[in-house]
Amino acid sequence: MSDLNTSDFNKALVRRFLDELYNNARPGVIDELFADDYVDHTASTEQEPGPAGARQIYDVFHTAFPDLRVEVHDMVADGDLVTFRSTLTGTSRGPLMGAEPTGKPVEIASMVFLRVRDGRFVERWEQMDLLGLMLQLGIVAESEPGGGDT
């Protein structure tokens, strides 16, 4: 398969994954698309390795935001590496990061890199706007401009 065909195939795979997992709440796709040796380079210390860790993170976010959806704004692929910029949206209905649910909608900006091998995800890096999420959930408070004693 040429790099162009590989890139197109991998982009389609990532789009399918995002649509099934987030927009249709089908977590079984994790078992189908994550390799046994999958490594999440941005995993929390509590996160299990491999596909079980991916499922664990999905379960945490789906519990907190049962109506979680993803909108992909940009996606680029170069051979086995796919990157995308997206916004996750949902309503705070369950606990997250020690915060009780607020019932309010949230938006979370994210950038993800996924490495694909033989039609399965083997590596992931993500930069999610966790500060923005914590502000929306009231976990941290926004400081006043100039923010200090005068």
Search tags:
33% helix; single chain; 5 strands; 4 helices; alpha+beta; 150 residues; Nuclear Transport Factor 2, Chain: A
Overview of the structural elements:
With 150 residues, the chain is an alpha+beta fold. It has one domain (3-137): Nuclear Transport Factor 2, Chain: A. It is 33% helix and 33% strand. It has four helices and five strands; from the N terminus they run ααβαββββα. The protein has helices at 3-23, 28-33, 50-64, 130-137, and strands at residues 34-40, 69-78, 81-91, 105-117, 120-128. Strands 1-5-4-3-2 form a five-stranded mixed β-sheet. A hairpin with a 2-residue loop joins β4 and β5. The model has no long low-confidence stretch (mean pLDDT 92).
The helical percent reads 25-40%
**Morphology call:** globular
Instruction: Work out the strand percent.
Output: 25-35%
Low-confidence stretches: none
Distance between the termini: 64 Å
Can you identify the CATH class?
Alpha Beta
Q: What is the residue-averaged pLDDT?
A: 92
Task: Please give a quick description of this structure.
The chain is an alpha+beta fold and 150 residues long. Helices cover 33% and strands 33% of the residues.
Give the SSE layout:
Layout: H1 3-23, H2 28-33, E1 34-40, H3 50-64, E2 69-78, E3 81-91, E4 105-117, E5 120-128, H4 130-137
Parallel strand pairs: 1-5
Antiparallel strand pairs: 2-3, 3-4, 4-5
